Amino acid sequence: MTLINFLIETIGFSVCHQLSSRSLTVGNIILPVCSRCSGIYTGFFITTIILFIMFRKKENDLPPLYILIIFALFFLSTIVDGIASNFGLYNTNNNLRFITGFLCGSSIMSIIYPIFTFQYYKESKKEKIFKKPHKFIIYILILMVFITITLLRFNFLGYFYYYLAGASILFTFYFINLVMVLLIPIFSQRASRLASKYLILPSIIAIALSLLELFVSFWFHKFINHF
Fold it and tell me: Is the whole-model pTM more than 0.90?
C-alpha cells in the first residue's frame, strides 16, 4: 500500500464503517468508503465544480421554493433509504445507496454555495441560483450522466474513483469549515474574485479544523470498535 492509499484509507476509516460488502467496486478497486458515503462526498464535490462553472455572476440567493423542495427530497432520500432498509421494509443495494447519497451530497452543496458567495465576495449579486429553470435541468442532466457513468463501473476508472472519493472527503470537510470561518465578520465579504488573498487565511483555518475533526473522528471510531 502506498502512502497516499494509506492516508485515504485512514481518512475513510474516520468517517465510514468501510464494509466491503456495502462499498462500490470499480474494476478490482474497492472504494475507500461505503457506497452511500462515496455518493455523499463525491456528490458534494462534483456539484461544487458544476455550480462554480454555472454561476459566475456571484449569485448569492437560495434557489426558488420548488427547487428547495426537490433538494429536500434529495436529502431525505438517503435517510429514508438507510432507515427503511435497516428496518427491513425493503432490500436496498449499493447502486441505490450511491444514488441517494449522491443526491444528498449534491443538495447540501447547492444550499451552501449561495451562503459561501454571500459571505466571501465584497459585492455579490442578489439573485437566486437556478432562477432560470433551464439551468436546473442542465444541472440535473449532468448529475445523471455522472451517476450513470459511475454505476457502469468501467474497469479503467477504478483508481480514478478511488482517489476521487478520498479527495471528495477532504474537500467536503474543508469547504464546510471554510464557510463557517467566513461567517466570522473579520473574514466576511472582502474578496472581489475567487482566487484572492482573502481566501488564504480562512483556508488555512478551515484545513486545520478539518484535520482536527478527522483526527478526533478517527480515534473515536477506533475507540468504539473495541466494544
Answer: yes
